[in-house]
Structures are given as structure tokens and as C-alpha cells.
Amino acid sequence: MKHYVIGILAMGLVGCQSATTGNQTASQAQIKSASGGCNSAIEDFQNWVTGGQECLAMRVFRSKETFDAPPTLVIALHGDGASGSRADRAPQTWIDQIQDNILDQEMFKKSNSIIAVIARLGYPIDGVGRSTGHRPEPDGRRATYRPEYIAPIFDAVKNLAAKYQPQKIVAWGSSGGSASLAIGAGIHSDTPISQLLLGVCPCDVPTWEHGHGWPSSGAYSPLDYATKIPNQTEVILVVGQKDRNTAPSLSETFLKTRQAAGGSARIVYTDGTHSSTRQTTEHIAEQLKTITNTK
């Protein structure tokens, strides 16, 4: 059986154009079919992909035009973003950071890699459109760490794998994207994920919410799924030692729980904060190593 690494990254692929209608991004009416999922006229697996009953906006990037071996499929999932309408910037900020830090690296350009940045339910991607589905506002985005919000993402991963026939899938998440991936990898354990790269993860949600003085959002917690992710899936946690949002202890608790049950896991520390960790040398190096390693 082929193994996949689900990486929630936002990297750019060569030669992929934004799927728009004319010069306009697609409207919600154009996006979704009457029976659910993407309208067949718009689903192109570069800008739109079906995820269950939803149609998810995405941006796909290739390391090269022609691959000389089956590629690594990297699924990149963004964080929650700031509160209110500013949350809309979360997917594009993720894309910009990966374009700035990853795409021009020789290690990436020499690899056989496809990076698919997926917008979570209700989030937009510039020049493409907004994923269908509900996104709680203004402060309920933590409540999307629940199966009904996560299942469409994992269905989209399976559809992308069927399209691109990867040698493996890498899942890379950031903050809330990490939480969604970790929970989903435990629930959808039949999805063969080789590696799960969890950046600045709120991996123990009750402790995280309590530490900030927030009321319970009803979110599921990645910690409850640490032992449900298949043992052979390598979980790589990346956290900044100066992170005051998702403190290192949240990732450390997840790590200890998973290792105690015999699961593969390790942690990488950066000297950054929550926002700067994604751009630190240690994190970028870990991203590149995970994406380009074909084992």
C-alpha cells in the first residue's frame, strides 16, 4: 500500500492558474452543485476540490512541470487567523509565507512535489473564491475543531490523492490547522498519512482555553487523538520556545502521550514566537526535509 503524507502547506506549483470565471472569482452559486460538492464545471483539482458535501477553495503549486517519479502530495492547512473579518487573511498569509520561504529553495525545486493549500470551511483564497460551509464568527472558530468541519478536508485529501496518485502525502498544519489535522488523522485513521507536521499546535485544547481565560468552545482536542493516529504515522511537532499563545507544554503533552502508547513522534523547538515560528530557519528546514524526503 502506498503511504501518504498530509502536509498542510501553502506552496506554489509551477504552471497552475487560478480557476476563475473570466476575471472574476467564482460565486457561491457557481461553486456548489445541487447534490453537494463542487459543480463539475468548476472542480479542477487546482483551485477547487470536493470535500463531502462542500466545495473547497485551494491553490496548488508544483515543484517542476514534469515529474520523474510519483510526487509527494503536501496538504497545507492554515490557522484560524485574527478575529472577525481579518480571519479571511489566514489562507493567503499562509500562502505568502510558503512562497517567500519554500518555493525558491533548491531542495524543493529538485524534488517531485505538489503542494495543495486548502481553505477551511468558510475561508477564502485570493483570486479563487470562498470555500463553502459555515465558519462560526466572530470568536467561535475554535469550535471548528470538530468532526463535521474536519471530515470535508479529509474527503478532499482522498480526492486529491486519487487525482495525483502520489507516492506519499504529507500533512502540514499551522495552529488551528494543526489541531484540525491531528484530530482528523485520529478519526480518519484509514487515510494513509506518512507524516503529520504540526506547527504551533493547540494540542491540549481545554488547557489552552483555560490558560487564556476563554470559555469552552466545545472544540475537540488533539490530545484525545494522540493515540488514535496510526503508530506508524510520524508526527513532527514544531513549537517556538517564546510562544505565549500555543505554549510548548501543549505540544510536549501530546508528544509524551503519543510516545507512551508506542506512536512515532518527535518535537522540534525554534527560538521564535507563535507568529514568527513559521518563518524560522528550524521550521523551514523541517518543512523542506519532510516534503522532499521520498522514503
Corresponding CATH superfamily: Alpha/Beta hydrolase fold, catalytic domain
- As residue ranges, the low-confidence spans are 1-24
Strand order of the largest sheet: 1-2-4-3-7-8-9-10
Summing up helix and strand content along with how strands pair, one would put the structural category as alpha/beta
Radius of gyration: 17 Å
- Return the CATH topology: Rossmann fold
CATH class: Alpha Beta
Largest sheet properties: 8 strands, mixed
Amino- and carboxy-terminal Cα gap = 13 Å
How would you describe what is shown here?
This protein is of the alpha/beta class. The protein has one domain: Alpha/Beta hydrolase fold, catalytic domain (Rossmann fold), CATH 3.40.50.1820. It is 28% helix and 18% strand. It is built from eight helices and ten strands. It has helices at residues 28-31, 90-101, 106-109, 147-164, 176-187, 205-212, 248-260, 281-292; strands at residues 48-51, 54-62, 72-77, 113-118, 124-125, 129-130, 168-174, 195-199, 234-240, 265-270. The strands form two sheets. The protein has an eight-stranded mixed beta sheet with strand order 1-2-4-3-7-8-9-10, sandwiched between helices. A two-stranded antiparallel sheet has the order 5-6. Helix 6 links the parallel strand 8 (195-199) and strand 9. Helix 4 (147-164) crosses helix 5 (176-187). The chain starts with 27 loop residues before the first helix and ends with a helix.
